[in-house]
Write a structure and sequence with these properties.
The chain is of the alpha+beta class. The protein is built from 4 helices and 11 strands. It has 2 domains: about 1-45; about 45-250, outer membrane lipoprotein receptor (LolB), chain A, CATH 2.50.20. Helices cover about 40% and strands about 35% of the residues. Strands 1, 2, 3, 4, 5, 6, 7, 8, 9, 10 and 11 form an 11-stranded antiparallel β-sheet that branches. The chain is globular and about 75 Å long. Residues about 30-40 have low confidence and may be disordered.
Length: about 250
């Protein structure tokens, strides 16, 4: 009887050990499966395919926009205070150049009187040149040139990152797009192969005084993508400029 009890006890120990081993094996299998699942969700996007869609979208958008005229509203804030609002009617001339004509629907902030008013006007004059350069800078970067971003990609300088849990929206970054130290980024939804946004980090005169601007895309009824809203921020100058495009019509509008 004693031998039988000892033998039974050993069997129980063996079975218990076997169960623990099986549990460990099962746990390892589950971990591997979970890792494989997560890796599949966040697999590295196809850079070449994404670049092809971005370049095609930029070219098509630029070509399609030549069919339209629209209203561009530019607002300027200094230290959080709205200083001016200007409107232009925009269209592409027969030679393919973007033309802007003032609509007359523009407002300037009322001038303050006395010494305070003179100080404010002097500061506005000092900023006028900077604001003009900032607007030129926006036009330099937006919309991006498909060939130029292609060159940066070909040089192996661009990078890609996933920006949504589903793994369908990506952000591609292109350093030194125009000048050393700048960064242009393009966000795209590969699910519907549409551009989402453009963001830029650059500078006007001083490399230590960063200027950023962000542009979001929208779609016209025929699928044409256009720059809906652009916001430029220059913290060093307490300056913010917004550009809103609206009122799209086929033709020049005249």
């Amino acid at each position: 009887m004693r031998k039988n009890k000892a033998s039974g006890h050993q069997e129980l120990i063996y079975l218990h050990s076997l169960k623990r081993t099986d549990m460990k094996k099962m746990l390892v299998v589950l971990v591997i499966a979970l890792f494989a699942s997560v890796s599949g969700i966040f697999a590295q996007p196809d850079m070449k395919e994404t670049m092809a869609v971005i370049k095609t979208s930029l070219v098509q958008s630029k070509a399609n926009m030549k069919q339209y005229s629209w209203i561009e509203t530019t607002s300027t804030w200094i230290k959080g205070e709205l200083k001016s609002t200007k409107q232009n009617q925009c269209y592409y001339s027969v030679d393919g150049k973007l033309t802007k004509v003032a609509t007359g629907n523009s407002d300037q902030a009322k001038k303050a009187g006395g010494i305070k008013g003179k100080i404010i006007e002097n500061k506005k004059e000092e900023l006028a040149d900077y604001i003009a350069k900032a607007m030129d800078k926006v036009n330099d970067y937006l919309p991006p040139d498909a060939d130029k971003i292609g060159q940066i990609y070909a040089a192996g300088k661009s990078a890609i990152q996933i920006i949504d849990p589903a793994g369908k929206k990506y952000k591609l970054s292109f350093p030194d797009y125009i000048q050393k130290g700048d960064m242009l980024s393009v966000s795209i939804d590969m699910g519907n192969q549409k551009l989402m946004a453009i963001s830029v980090s650059t500078y006007i005169d001083n490399p230590s005084e960063k200027v950023t601007f962000d542009m979001t895309y929208n779609n016209l009824p025929d699928g044409t993508q256009y720059s809906a809203n652009t916001t430029l921020v220059a913290d060093a100058k307490n300056l913010k400029i917004t550009i809103v495009n609206s009122g799209f019509k086929k033709g020049s509008g005249f």
